[in-house]
Design goal:
Two copies of one chain form a homodimer. With about 600 residues, chain A is of the alpha+beta class. Helices cover about 55% and strands about 10% of the residues of chain A. In chain A, the strands form three sheets. In chain A, strands 3, 4, 5, 6, 7, 10 and 11 form a seven-stranded mixed beta sheet that branches. Chain A has a two-stranded antiparallel sheet with strand order 1-2.
Amino acid sequence: MPSYTAPTKDMQFILHDVLKLSQGTTPGYADLDRDFTAAILEEAGKIASEVLAPLNPVGDTEGCRLENGVVYTPPGFKAAFEQMKENGWPGIDMPEDFGGQGMPYVLGTAVGEFFSAANQAFTMYQGLTHGAASTILAHGTKAQKETYLHKMVACDWTGTMNLTEPHCGTDLGLMRTKAEPQADGSYKITGQKIFISAGEHDMAENIIHLVLAKIPGGPEGIKGVSLFIVPKFLVNEDGSLGPRNGVSCGKIEEKMGIHGNATCVMNYDGATGYLLGEAHKGMRAMFTMMNEARLGVGMQGVAQAEIAFQNALAYAKDRLQGRDITGVKNPEGPADPLIVHPDIRRNLMEQKSFVEGGRAFLLWGATLIDAAHRSGDTDADGLISLMTPVIKGFLTDKGFDMTVQAQQVYGGHGYIEEWGMSQYARDARIAMIYEGANGVQALDLVGRKLAQDGGKHVMAFFDMVKSFCKSAAETDGMGEFVEPLKRASKDLQTAGMYFMQEGMKNPNAALSGSYDFMHLFGHVCLGLMWARMAEAALAALAAGTDDPDFHRTKLATARFYMARQLPMTATHLARIQSGAEPVMALDAANF
Amino acid sequence: MPSYTAPTKDMQFILHDVLKLSQGTTPGYADLDRDFTAAILEEAGKIASEVLAPLNPVGDTEGCRLENGVVYTPPGFKAAFEQMKENGWPGIDMPEDFGGQGMPYVLGTAVGEFFSAANQAFTMYQGLTHGAASTILAHGTKAQKETYLHKMVACDWTGTMNLTEPHCGTDLGLMRTKAEPQADGSYKITGQKIFISAGEHDMAENIIHLVLAKIPGGPEGIKGVSLFIVPKFLVNEDGSLGPRNGVSCGKIEEKMGIHGNATCVMNYDGATGYLLGEAHKGMRAMFTMMNEARLGVGMQGVAQAEIAFQNALAYAKDRLQGRDITGVKNPEGPADPLIVHPDIRRNLMEQKSFVEGGRAFLLWGATLIDAAHRSGDTDADGLISLMTPVIKGFLTDKGFDMTVQAQQVYGGHGYIEEWGMSQYARDARIAMIYEGANGVQALDLVGRKLAQDGGKHVMAFFDMVKSFCKSAAETDGMGEFVEPLKRASKDLQTAGMYFMQEGMKNPNAALSGSYDFMHLFGHVCLGLMWARMAEAALAALAAGTDDPDFHRTKLATARFYMARQLPMTATHLARIQSGAEPVMALDAANF
């Protein structure tokens, strides 16, 4: 049976030795000292491994069930959800005014990784609620916030995001769902939405749907889309639940994975809705929350890779098969453990260096979100806006790949559902698709984010890498990490220049290389993270850490990333520089 | 609903324009002219798309069922199996003496791709039978051949291969299954085998299990393993079925995919078995058939990529979403089809260039097997032996990746089982594992095959590439294909040299790079295939082909492969040259 142990030590290393949280100037960060975060992470890790992880295969096997309009979640989910609520986890980084604990987003991200690793399908119920509540927080009226947020922060009521329709996903301008204005200021919502995660279930008293729809007579296309609050049960003035609204679940989808989460077809049949934010500005309201939501999905990539890696590692140490080619390592046993074999190590090191580098990247991104939201730091806001598609696209692509590699360590057992490795791969697969498929992330990065504010943010990124390299190079022992990072960063700059020069003449020259650019950027970011972790490890060793093995392992893993993963930037650059012609040459009919 | 159309035109191009089959000297090739293979491919394609493909989702959804020791295959499988038998497909490349059609293996591979693409789980029943029959053909006594082969060639009786036990997969020396000699010359087989594909089912009168077991008192480890024929029903002297043997299916595994194939736990409880080949030489007997079996698995990688690509392409042409950035392409519609977008094309071109290049690689490999078996060509035998791990490992890794990319074209719909794209990825996943996990293929390549016969075969490969480049460079228009191939081949040679030099000092220096070497080799082979296809396309265009679009498309796809895929060789080389240290640095305890 698979198991999960929260990587609290690694998380502490990143939060304190690398990001030096409590020395930060972001409001709330001074409280995040080592002991405080240790206590929080310890508690979160406990519930993740003891409560959520055992339910993960249950959710996969049992799935959700729709009967007479009611969706039943898998056995045990409801009790676990109650426990999460009682312990206040859903509101950890929500405002105290609405019952949250008001902690920084970076801490929510850290514990969120644990929950998501232990049980992605389960954690989505509160994740979606978080996203919906954040949207109401940012765009709702005072009355709307009062009506919904107390309950949503506590997860007594959960939330959803309704964007996709059968004929439109990425291109939401094609949307058909209608919102007809009523005399009392409300709207009647009519239409069908699909792929609605947590759209209907039995774990909350009420479900607050956020629904994109068009007000008749508004602008064509995406500029005519508005956002509405559509509660499953209407809410009376005193806050009690009123009559059932005209919204229902028509179907639960059969999916490749995340079976524990109900992915619903939602039918709106003249349902009462309330405008959230301005009319026709629905996309803007949705996008306010996109950086957070996409970072959350990137986190799922790392989280699934982490639990898959943990189990693959345990199996590699336990399973006896073959002998070490350089000499027997387990003479008492009939064979040596798998981990003696170089190719098994190659595989495990790829997983390990990805997971730890990706985790650092995510948490760094979360500190930028905190700086933007809590300190109004517009530079941080610009930088995280630039890097959001990289976090989402690169970390979910690689996260999925790593679950597949972890599965491979098990040989045939990896393919058998009983061992649990298949579920990690099947669950991780969705993260490459939802919240904007990864090809759309690449398009956002190259088509929009690179040139945003005159290219200011990407220049800031390069300056940051440059000044890091300059200062780090002065530390003894950092040369071996700084040099490959410099080379990789140069590849990224060269690719950026290519886009600027060629993209002016032909946008396809840039867009044909967008996916490679997203991955190139991701490698540079993980290279930067590994260099920063190496720097922190060297500092700890110099200061006489009481855990030298831990810090030496960081250095060895950093070396692996530099030697074995970062060279990928050269190939991405070569692909990019081949331009549009190889990609666009064929007529559609000749494919 | 997904669909499948057999790529007969592409297959004909490879067989005749590239491989020039009927001009070959291998016995049987002279008969394989264009019209003859066209007729065969047409018929095979018809049954694949009309009979097997519609059953593919049925097999996935319904799976197999074990009731009171009887395994029921999914609805429709049995009738389709009968139809395949009636049309003689299972024995197409088996000897006429035993009721086969005696055609070359290359033709069996060509039609096998169609069947496997249309329904991998179904096709495995006859694939396993083919493997078992081939083993009896190579190692059986005259009486054994007479007793089993007529029925097996017809698929009236099916076959299995029993290697794995719960505690041993790759390391078969740990095997516990026992074979105790009986007075009548037979053996009593006792033990448990797992992951036995087609181990029990309702489509054949009898099942002939080939079982590896140890005769007590024999040599330790892998040298004490023998191979046995263990029929489900014992066979009387007159060929009629006798009593049920002591072998039974204890369980069907729940797997990630290929649900239509029964993966069985097989319990041998003093079952009567007959030695096949020499005692204690069981592994040698098994390995005789390995090149074929592994090529067959590599084919599954290409086949699943093909059907996934076909459906992704159709969806990309059909689904309207967004507008072409260079100008509206579908002004009458609400949006342009997905295929106008550069990143969708990048994705589709990666699929297309892999599938067509991989198909050529496979068929070329099949001609080498024919040359080895039919002409006793030892050079061909050495070359295919070298390339077998590349065919198996590279084509199944990439094949799976391509099914994942095809799924991605569908966005959210790709994750919903109803659309069928998930099944291709789930089914393709197993090919990376069975017949030797891909890490073991890499080990076989670098640890064994490279140095085989003094490195003669890899030198022959390099000479072949070199002389191809030299002669092709004389053709107008070939320069753009020859140059990248030369560079890639040089990377491969450099990697080989590195292994020779460093591997002498430290075997881990070579083995740490084995996986990258396997992929590097695969890219060079596909580069060679694309250069050969380009040469054939240029020749056809020069000769005034009546289908210039087809041949120009080959040139454009070859250009894509050279520009966008082949540069990967540089990264593989860089990883290899970083040596063992980054991979092996950590103690197991510090992971």
